[in-house]
Amino acid sequence: LRIVSEYKKKSEENGFYDRNAAAKLHERIEKRQQVLAEDVERRKEARQSQSVAEEKSEYFVSSFNAERAGIQELLSDCSGADRPTVTQKLEEATAKMTQLQKFLNDSMIFLSQYQIRVAQGALQKLQASLNETREEALPKKKFTFRSRTKAAEKVSDSPPPPSSETVSSGVTKVEEAAISEQTGFSNISNESLTKTSEEIQSRDVLLTHLTNCKVRLYGSPSTLHLKHITACEVLCGPVATSVFVDHCSNSVLGFACQQLRTHNTTDTQVYLHVTSRAIIEDCRGVSFAPFCWSYPTLDQDFTASGLDQDRNNWSQVDDFNWLAAGTPSPNWTVIPEADRKTTWDP
């Protein structure tokens, strides 16, 4: 306004005051002031957003490290402890590992790829320590066949009952439960394979070394592992936690899950519903589209899995081999709508 007033005063003194020119100058000045104010507001919002993200990231790092230390302490307590105590500690450590993985999955939306990679590496090391501790503290007994002498039979006329921690085979109840919770198919070619909800519900499913097979998994498993899958079509109901794919080629996959980890996979289509993020590593020619398989009890299985049907990050894929900011990874693409499958054979 001061500039306009000065312009008006000088123009009147010189005898050529133009009201239209003054109005246009006033309008330009107002627009510039508005642009400056909007720019200031955008920078303010950006600073606030960055501050919130940094606070969330700091909270994640501190909480993650604290939980990891707690699990490491549980594993350390297994050293020299009796069998019931070890079993209890391992069960507690396993439960905390699952919670820690879920915490990471839920936090991926605001973590950097570097932070995700570091956390995943820490979890892998922790899982390896857990497995090693279990092997050392609770080794599986091997079957042995021996002929019993009459003297031995007399001594063992009244054998003691098995302890509450073991079953007749010598395998602990914890180990037996882990074995019974896994199901799947392996080393099969040129067949149609099906598992019902009763067979996979809340269990770990392993598919390995399958070639030219059509696989249908109805229900909600706990986890899904696919290894060495070639020229197959695999469809699975909602997976409560993670799907792990390794060495898969020329295949079509479809599933819903909390997290997807894909390694060493080529020329494969993935019809995906994922509530956190999809991660690929050492992959090429992988393409994605929204999960679209349906069967009568799908909604019930979504409820059982705990997954959010309204939250699907199928196109948010992190490539750990491609960290160039602002440049799309050449290792994965989105399947064009015209090329997507919409119907599936039973």
Automatic annotation (TrEMBL):
<comment type="function">
    <text>Tubulin-folding protein; involved in the final step of the tubulin folding pathway.</text>
</comment>
<comment type="similarity">
    <text>Belongs to the TBCC family.</text>
</comment>
<protein>
    <recommendedName>
        <fullName>Tubulin-specific chaperone C</fullName>
    </recommendedName>
</protein>
<dbReference type="InterPro" id="IPR012945">
    <property type="entry name" value="Tubulin-bd_cofactor_C_dom"/>
</dbReference>
<comment type="subunit">
    <text>Supercomplex made of cofactors A to E. Cofactors A and D function by capturing and stabilizing tubulin in a quasi-native conformation. Cofactor E binds to the cofactor D-tubulin complex; interaction with cofactor C then causes the release of tubulin polypeptides that are committed to the native state.</text>
</comment>
<keyword id="KW-0963">Cytoplasm</keyword>
<dbReference type="Pfam" id="PF16752">
    <property type="entry name" value="TBCC_N"/>
</dbReference>
<dbReference type="InterPro" id="IPR027684">
    <property type="entry name" value="TBCC"/>
</dbReference>
<keyword id="KW-0597">Phosphoprotein</keyword>
<dbReference type="Pfam" id="PF07986">
    <property type="entry name" value="TBCC"/>
</dbReference>
<feature type="region of interest" description="Disordered">
    <location>
        <begin position="148"/>
        <end position="172"/>
    </location>
</feature>
<dbReference type="GO" id="GO:0005829">
    <property type="term" value="C:cytosol"/>
</dbReference>
<keyword id="KW-0143">Chaperone</keyword>
<dbReference type="GO" id="GO:0015631">
    <property type="term" value="F:tubulin binding"/>
</dbReference>
<dbReference type="InterPro" id="IPR017901">
    <property type="entry name" value="C-CAP_CF_C-like"/>
</dbReference>
<keyword id="KW-0007">Acetylation</keyword>
<dbReference type="InterPro" id="IPR038397">
    <property type="entry name" value="TBCC_N_sf"/>
</dbReference>
<dbReference type="InterPro" id="IPR016098">
    <property type="entry name" value="CAP/MinC_C"/>
</dbReference>
<dbReference type="GO" id="GO:0007023">
    <property type="term" value="P:post-chaperonin tubulin folding pathway"/>
</dbReference>
<dbReference type="InterPro" id="IPR031925">
    <property type="entry name" value="TBCC_N"/>
</dbReference>
<dbReference type="GO" id="GO:0007021">
    <property type="term" value="P:tubulin complex assembly"/>
</dbReference>
<feature type="domain" description="C-CAP/cofactor C-like">
    <location>
        <begin position="159"/>
        <end position="322"/>
    </location>
</feature>
<dbReference type="InterPro" id="IPR006599">
    <property type="entry name" value="CARP_motif"/>
</dbReference>
